[in-house]
Design a protein that fits this description.
Layout (H helix, E strand, L loop, with lengths): L5 H5 L1 E3 L2 E3 L3 E3 L21 E3 L16 E4 L2 E4 L8 H14 L4 E6 L3 H12 L7 E5 L16 H14 L4 E4 L7 H11 L3 E4 L3 E4 L14 E5 L4 H13 L5 E4 L5 H10 L3 E4 L2 H4 L3 H15 L15
Parallel strand pairs: 3-4, 3-14, 4-7, 7-8, 8-9, 9-10, 10-13, 13-14
Antiparallel strand pairs: 1-2, 5-6, 6-12, 11-12
Helix pairs in contact: 3-4, 4-5, 6-7, 7-9
The structure holds flavin mononucleotide (FMN).
Length: 310
């Protein structure tokens, strides 16, 4: 076996996105990265995906917005954020100075709003690795259906952003849809280079003493280890279709989970909820992946992508 350097061993390519390693932080669980720099050098990560930013600041849903469940977390944050202008003027200069590789997540209610955000992002696009489209926002014109549940909307929104920006476009899909292959094809038609999967699964919890839902929004999104087998199956099935490379996420809590996702077909992995219980998860999981490859004489991490026997 030819000797490869650490850099070659860990690097992965997803479309035209080159990552120095496959470990990415998930949107909404890592802010823009700076807070975790107190625990380890966040610039060692493949990338940090920011919180989803909208055109205007958004207050999010009414509290309570978090509820722990067995092996999971229910959240109904409701995409609270300070708006895209705030990210550009306040967050971006700080994270760039810290050398963090940024994937900017953006969210809108329709293609016109995505287009307006993309026009703002255009001015700073050289400072980003890619843009990720969070399509889980309800579209008012479609009676509240999420954008990612309507194939035409997925293609239209992706195309609008693709037309405005020169950087790679990632489309994040929801496990709440059963037609993921169709949605991924439409994202590809619109110009996406990568699919990110999974966002949270719709869930609910009720307080049996007060008879009230435990979340102010009644339902929320389930994440954490509870969703992991669902995520692995969705990634496995989508990877078999060979549509686009996949960033896989959903309940990754240790390096063994990360390897499992890559065997299922993920070209890179996203860490979300784990950051709340282990702020050093990114560093630990990256080190674990490296040791695994060395101990099994696997030359490159990309050699294991989709290599599940089955
Ligand atoms: C508190 C919280 C906030 C989130 N906010 C966003 C968000 O703003 N945009 C987005 O695309 N996904 C968001 N997500 C979904 C995560 O990025 C990720 O897809 C999901 O939690 C599954 O991964 P995990 O089980 O490792 O957390 C959020 C998840 C949590 C737990």
């Amino acid at each position: 076996m030819t000797e490869v350097s650490t850099v070659q061993k860990l690097s992965v390519k997803l479309g035209s996105i080159e990552l120095k390693n496959p470990v990415i932080m998930c949107s909404g669980t890592f802010a823009s990265g700076m807070e975790y720099n107190d625990f380890y050098d966040v610039s060692m990560l493949g990338a940090v995906t920011t919180k989803s930013f909208s055109l205007h600041p958004c207050e999010g849903n009414k509290p309570p917005r978090l509820c722990e469940t067995p092996a999971g977390l229910l959240n109904s944050i409701g995409l609270q954020n300070e708006g895209i202008d705030f990210f550009i003027s306040q967050h971006l200069p700080v994270v760039k100075k810290a050398g963090i590789n940024i994937i900017l997540s953006i969210v809108g209610i329709n293609s016109s709003e995505f287009s307006d955000i993309a026009a703002k992002v255009r001015k700073i696009e050289e400072e980003l690795l890619a843009v990720e489209l969070n399509l889980s926002c309800p579209n008012v014109k479609r009676g509240g259906l999420t954008i990612c549940s309507v194939p035409d909307d997925v293609e239209e929104v992706t195309a609008v952003v693709r037309k405005t920006l020169n950087i790679p476009v990632i489309v994040k899909l929801s496990p709440n849809n059963n037609n993921l292959a169709e949605l991924a094809k439409r994202a590809k038609n619109g110009g996406a280079e990568v699919i990110s999967l999974i966002n949270t699964l719709t869930g609910m919890a009720i307080d049996i003493n007060t008879f009230k839902p435990k979340l102010g929004n009644i339902t929320g999104g389930l994440s954490g280890p509870a969703v992991k087998p669902v995520a692995v199956a969705k990634i496995y099935n989508l990877h078999k279709e060979k549509i686009l490379p996949i960033i896989g996420m959903g309940g990754i809590f240790c390096w063994q989970d990360a390897i499992e996702f890559m065997l299922a077909g993920a070209s890179a992995v996203g860490l979300g909820t784990v950051n709340f219980s282990d702020p050093e998860a990114g560093k630990n999981i990256l080190e674990g992946i490296f040791s695994y490859l060395c101990s099994r004489n696997i030359a490159r991490v990309s050699d294991i992508i989709g290599k599940v026997n089955g």
